[in-house]
Amino acid sequence: MPVDAGKLPDAQLLDxxxxxxxxxxxxxxxxxxxxxxxxxxxxxxxxxxxxxxxxLDVFPTTTSVRLSPGATTDEVTLNGVLAEGxxxxxxxxxxxxxxxxxxxxxxxxxxxxxxVPTGAGLxxxxxxxxxxxxxxxxxxxxxxxATGLSRLARRGSGSASRSIFGGFAVWRAGTxxxxxxxxxxxxVMDLASHAEPVPVGDLAPALVIALLDTGPKAVSSxxxxxxxxxxxxxxxxxAASSRADLVEMREALRHGDLAxxxxxxxxxxxxxxxxxxxxxxxVRYLSPTSVTVLxxxxxxxxxxxxxxxxxxxxxxxxVLCRSSDADQVSAAVRAAASCPVAVAHCGPGARLQTxxx
Length: 357
Ligand code: PMV
What we know:
CATH class of the largest domain: Alpha Beta
Number of helices: 11
CATH architecture of the largest domain: 2-Layer Sandwich
Helix content: 25-40%
Bound molecules: (3R)-3-hydroxy-3-methyl-5-(phosphonooxy)pentanoic acid
Strand content: 15-25%
Shape: globular
Order of helices and strands: EHEEEEEEEEHEHHHEHEEHHHHEEHEE
Number of domains: 2
């Protein structure tokens, strides 16, 4: 039976360990309606702005972590294939952090399977690092509540901090250390940046996901963010407007106002892509078919269907609409772009699988 990490007292998180000392966790991707784009601290993964997302009920990642005493390296299998290169290095670096915090040295065997295409701007790193955070914390005996798990997941991939929670979540950028002299600056900054659930009024949203291209993106989000922050003359303006968007978004969610949620989400995402287009050299994730779907969304709105687009680091467009309109929106997107679509609703937070005990 899955157990929601967000609802557990600390001690129970340890109960996810199986008899061999391993643990398995499941997490779902999230799609930001107010985006995270740009780090003010790359190593600690601290963003410039707060971001807000919806966790999905489709495309889960399942990750198991088993300690391997005596081994000299971690063994990481990603979607059935031994992970080498950057993907393997990121997972080992994350486990090093967990080991350091747990005061343990054992290497681990990690098996992780995505049901969403990896690295295609479909939030596989969010579900991936949220599941890894929950499973590795349990396997290494780190006692963390949901806030602690969110901070930990953040270090793997910023957006993963939000997938610890179900429904809607806001990831706080946090503050810089200021004049706190009791604790070191790094600890103060780390503690302040995590996600938390967002109260939402009466809203029954769906996200229609147009699967336009599921291949890995040419430029990683890490590199694209860095280039945008360093070279785009539009970045500061977007960051300022994104802070205002967050205030409006929270208000719209609280009132269950889908049209206001959608309007803010669409302008925030298009603004983010504008900052990237102005980077030097430009980062362009949008394809001609992405623009076709944007046109379809406009046409739906003109026909009286509240539908709003958001796009991440890839060409795939996600269309926010009422659950009751999801079939009509899916049909319109499929017809315009000749692509498969997936329909998502609000999903659960990351959780341990306790069935394997
Ligand atoms: O967490 P990362 O490094 O995969 O970056 C995610 C960036 C966006 O998906 C484009 C926006 C977001 O807030 O999720």
